[in-house]
Amino acid sequence: MTLSSRIAMPGQVRSVAAQDASGHLYVTSYGTSPLETIVTVMDSGDVTAWQRTFAGTGRPQSRLSADGTLWVAYPHQGGRALEGVLPDGSTHRTIVPECEAGEELSAFVLLDSGFCIAWAGASRILRMSQDAQPAFPQPRVARYTWEGNCVWSTPIVLGAVSHPGVVGMGVETGWDVRPLRPWVPEEVDVDHWEPLLVSGDRVAASFTDARGGLGRTFFLDLASGAIVSATSPAPSGRKAIAGPGEFLIGSQGYGEFTTGHYDRDGSTTARWASHGAMLIDGRGTICGPELENRLPSTSRFRRLLPDSKLVDGPPLTGYYTSYPAMDREGTAVFWRDGKLLAVDADLDSHELFAMDDNRNIMGRTLLLGDGRVVVSLDNEVLTFHSPLGPLAEGPWPCGDANLLGNPVLD
Q: Looking at residue 127, what is its pLDDT?
């Protein structure tokens, strides 16, 4: 197992994607300023083909389409633009969806017929760079055509939130520690982890109290935008597409450490006492590294059974973890605690590479052709040659969702 390259980017890497297993890498990162987005494209030999800079983005985000067009979101003349960048670096087209003052295009995905966008208040760093300080607008989810025409727009009302683990003390509690009464958040943002997923005819859009970390996932009908159902307020966590119209919604914090499986009606069909970066293969098997919020780590690689039971895999040291990928033999690969680890279908662990590195900012793991593994660590992209096989097919994040970085399952 060898480290074949480590390429430094201008700033922290936000996403890495590839059109196919042998194609170019599209790296989206901050620039030298946090108000710049840099898109870097590297060829199969890890040589930079071109770079482009987009000013004033605040939190860089991009999605790669199957035809190799990278869509980048950025502020544009008081609004928000989506620019399609062709494989040679030229502009394909620019779409400026209609929005209100203070709204930010906070998350988006690419559909066969256009875009699905989650709107929320502009990020703090972007507001600080502007003269006006607009009030926080109501969050919403909207669908658009490729031309930018709005198909539907659905307001999101997070409502009052609470959780038994959120406690406080004061005069009204007699200075005893008690659970806080429900409160209406002053600022609502999209969730940090997987805020917008589309599977079949369902959209899973997650919003949180920006200050308290409690949030809800809203399940919408993709055709009409109607809200089908919503989860109860809970600490936010990792999420995944589990199948057509089905999702995994995780929750961690304030004593919560769970993952629920939700069907297309938004009903909970299973719940596990575990939370992590989960993979779902073509047979519907769920497994992945746990992400328990404590040190020293008591996390394991787990397999989640349909009856809400857990199968113990190997224990995991460290804390921060890249989202894993899986090959067709059922071996998961990911970066954790300074190591590139692989856990096979028998739940045996293998250390593929190790180095003295304690960086805590990392993205997804990409598995490309010929066993090529790509991991981003802070402002670097690392490429390894491994004995792993081709990328598995499955709802999440195998197949196209892993390579393109566009969380949509048709």
A: 52
